[in-house]
Amino acid sequence: QERENDLAVATFGRGWYVLDDYSYIRQINKEVMDKEAHIFDIKDGLLYYPGNNHGNQGEVYFRAPNPEPEVRIIYNVKEGYETLKQKRMKAQREAGKSGREITYPSDEELLAEAQEERAMLIFTISDEDGNIMRKIESPLRKGIGSLAWDMSYMDRRGPSVPPGKYFVSIEKYVNGEYIDLGEKKEFIINALDNSALGDPDYEAKFEFLKKATDLYTTISEVYSFTNELKGEMGSIRDELMITPARTHELVLDTKNIEKEIDDIILAISGRRDENVRVDATEPSIMNRISFAVRATSGAESDITGAQREQYDISLAKIENEYSRLKDLYDNEIMELKNNLKSVDIDWSPGDLPAFK
Question: What are the pLDDT digits (tens) for 43-57?
Answer without folding.
Answer: 999 998 876 655 555
